[in-house]
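Shipment paperwork, digital attachment
Item: protein structure file
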Amino acid sequence: MKKQIFAVCDLEAEYARNFMDYLNQKKNIPFEIQAFTNVSSFVAYAKENPVELLLISAEAMCPEVGELDIGKIVILTEGSKPDELDRYADVYKYQASSDIVREVMACYGAEKAVLPAQMPVLKKTTELLGIYSPLGFCGQTSFALALAQILGREKSVLYLNMEEYSGFEELFEKEYPYTLSDLLYFVRQEQAGITVKMNSMIQSMGSMDFIPPVQSPEDIRGTRWQDWEHLLQEIVLHSSYEAVILDVGDGIEEVFQILDLCTRVYVPVRDDRISKCKMEQFEKLLRLRDYSQLLAGIEKVLLPILSQNTDNEFRIEELVWSELGDFVRELLEKENL
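Attachment content:
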């Protein structure tokens, strides 16, 4: 089934083209993108093709557009909008394209759920790649981020941190308006339109997208594994991501159940005696609980030590080109991912 249509109409041709180029590069946008630089062309198109979402500049908006059967109209403004457009949601034009997309998706998601006509997104497949270790201090998150960045150069990748303490706001020195906590709350309400809501929260970093992690560990501990399963199923069915990297922590309820959903599971290990004994205990527990198939699919990875840069700042691109990045590239090449 064809994707629903997201149309952009702006009289400033260069702006419309640049914004469309950005949208086409964003592999997770669950719409077919169409851009128009004059109203008559858009109106003619919309009369023949159902438009689900329209982002249109205040200057281009007119009664003829308002009479069209369009799912949701959002006005692109330069700071204010005419009184006659008050009934429409609006976003500010001159901000980062990623912020515009988040705000538009938030406006859309506020009223729209996943429509009955929306079928599973057409794509090759979605792989769930789980990263988990029963050990501590083994470079799990660095490995997961490097994997997401490098794989993201070839595929559309979503990174999902499922740890109680991620440290992301502190690491990147940025506060996020929405986090995984908000999405999990939405999931627990058993409402439709999860991926629409998710798209209003997505942040981008390098070649990957991510949902900002929770800020309170209770939001991880208080989420049933069935809710995690439902969220992941929705992402697989209704998003355009080809790979989802799950950075799994011990606070997850029924962590084995979550790992069992994954296409592949990477377990960072250490080669000291105590760590080996912990891994042995972990493997015994998998057998005891009848997860022998999961155990057989686990790949242990002994990661190279990640050196710290001189100014003690974290830069994602340095992670990609580090010894750890080389390790990840070799791993992906070996596994043909």
